[in-house]
Design brief:
This protein has about 375 residues and is an alpha/beta fold. The protein is built from 14 helices and 13 strands.
Amino acid sequence: MKLLYIVPSINDAGGVARVLSTKTNYLIEKWGYEIHILTQNKGNSSLFYFFNPKIVLHDMILDGNKMNYLLNYKNELQKHCKQINPDVIIVADNGLKAYLVPFFLDKKTPLVFESHGSKFIAEQKQSEHVWSKLKMKFKLFIKEFGAKKYTHFVALSDESLKEWRITNGVVITNPLYDFPKKLSDQSSKKVIAVGRHAYEKGFDNLLKIWKKVVEDYPDWVLEIYGKSDEKFELKELAENLNLTENIVFHEPVQNINEKYSEASFYLMTSRFEGFGMVLIEAMAAGLPCVAYDCPCGPRNIIDSEKNGFLIQNNNDKDYINAVKTLIEDKELRIRMGETAKSVISEYNLDEIMQSWNQFFREIKNN
């Protein structure tokens, strides 16, 4: 079985790269798949995660204005797909161009879209201007129209699939790729959050929430792990809020499981998610989680008041109270952490990869 994955890049510390490394490595080691990965603009250099050396990496250089960029993308796709001649093509890209791929490639090869983001990603931050609203509607139309042209559309949850209103969809969740060697003992005064510094992660809101928390609990520290971005100015916001003693920013690390185990609970303030894999990773380390009920993911993972707290979107008051409750009650953290660990069985790597193998076999045979 020969697969071709088309992704923007795999050289960062993001969730897509991590999940892709887990799945492709497993497919090769367990069933002897031949895997090719096609990236863009040296997107496979300096890999952050381990990819099996048997994986064949390809790259296409794209530049120029939007029209030239799109034309180059089309030509490069066609060239590489013809050379590789895969049994199945999988596109894992949240960019708008991904929804044009079905119009660029030969219909003979099964084409799968692997959705790792909300349908409304990058659209929720549009301004209220008429032109911006029209632009947003056009983008959503392209997404909906393009998604229906794929042979199959794979979503990470039922909630995500319902967003798209399509008939060619199937749900295959992300697997928990690694188990923590050590669990949190709930004794530290550290709280953790993980994710790149980007609008959708809502860290700007998290800092404002944390400001309210440390007014009552000045000895607690929030540690944020993720790729920094000067454009988002999170560190500047932390300084303006006088939080430099209560927040530590870290770049991505390989041993994130160790960092989970050093904390007492996990905080998520995302505006939207594709799935929320970090919640599962944190729970596997025995951490209760607090998250907004954003699309898509947290409500499928958090059982509120049992393994954490699911807070109504944008209800900062309830979020702050939930954080304070966990800080004040170590026994509650321990009980919730014990319940949270059961998530390990729900996202079993072997079972989920068996689903992928069966999925690919059926596509090829049909």
